[in-house]
Design goal:
By secondary structure, this protein is mainly alpha-helical. Helices cover about 70% and strands about 0% of the residues.
Amino acid sequence: MGPPSPTPSPTPSPVPGPPRRRGRRRLLIAAGAVCVAAGTVLVLLPAAPERTPARPSAGAQAQARARAEARAQARALTAVTSGVPAAPPALATLIARQESAVRARPGDVAAWAVLGSAYLERGRHTVDAADFPRAERALRTALEAAGPAGDAVALDAMTALAVARRDFPTARSFGEQAVKRDPGRWQAYPALIDAYTGLGDYKAARGALDRLMALKVNAAARPAVMARAAAVYRDRGWREDAVAQLTDAAAAARTPAEQAAYLTRTGQLAWERGEREDALRHFEAALRLDPDEPAALTGRARVLAALDRPDEAVAAYQTALARQPDPYATLELGELYEALGQSDAARTQYELLLERTRRTVAGGVDEELLIGRYEADHGDPEEAVERLRAEWQRQPGIEVADALGWALHRAGDDEEALTFAETATDSTKGGGVRSALYAFHRGMIERELDDYAPARRDLEDALRVNPYFSPLRAPEAREALRGLDALPEKPPPADFL
């Protein structure tokens, strides 16, 4: 046997630290007072000066800043070439560097591709479509210089640019080229999945996701892949799976900007289910990481309105719009003002909405869906129907089906409206998203057609999914339900006396 283990000594009492200077001074003054009273003289010597750590030289500080900037640029470069969010300061530095590179080497395919990708990321982050034409010019230059085979980064970015512009046919074309060029490159798939979804081709979207998930990706790419999977799961109505994927993506994210983006998407899922406090927690966590994350700024404003904090909500919307003049957020603020009875302020926002959509359209963005929604509720429903019919012919996604159905209802054609509302809400027809707004639209159309039982079911479902889905429409849904509760399940027969 080995020697016995030593008996552990009792835990010593905490040793007090050195007294603070102020306390020591009081003790000495008190001692001096006693000594003076006793007739003795106490001489107080000055305390030894504290030693402060030497500050690094200016040269060392400059080197540290240069190393930090280099790391930030490297992260931004990795982000824009792999389709994950990048921090705005690093983006600005990267753009300046790439602009210098293409001036010095006009035939450098990689430099043009990175520059176009950086312009695209900045435009998406700032909600400024003026960057989209710059991105397109740079990316087309890269593709022309690359020749028939194309450039992988440029093809990926052209796909993502078309998605940002809501031009899903063009996005599908570039995305399929990118996958054909290199089917093992994971970056080619996320924007292609968005394109298929925007075109209503959910079978192709699921197939592309399956191919993406089968690829072996490194740890740095895994969060982006999980986030892409979450979006498809959400569209299928698999909310718990979507939340799990986004939670894991946020935990594994490598940069604050990337983590903020995934936390924001988790907050959006919570909001869609009416979980206000959880949504607010995620949006605020995202904003602590990236104070300019546009979707988090708008999401926080939306939740504050739902929490019956209208003054804070208005201020939050104004802050969001001052940083990123997003037309969708402008419409939301206008409807909040309208719900608060502030019609003049609402009208101002609607005018701003039209002005901002003109700017985004000038940047190549397809805003027919947004303008159609605005016209249906606040303008000319007939014009909304015309715009949205054309949009449906070009890219028949679920969002367009819902908007067109609602515009037809507002224009008085409820029979045809119901067919589109069913497409947007019936999972057998592609509408797997659990949306309170879509259910509300369908319920109101059914009520107008005297289909009281289905109307009651869908309006109840809207308020069950998210009781706060709109400051204007949620109260309207509750009012409609109260009216339906006073009616029989079926209308009385024609010969009823």
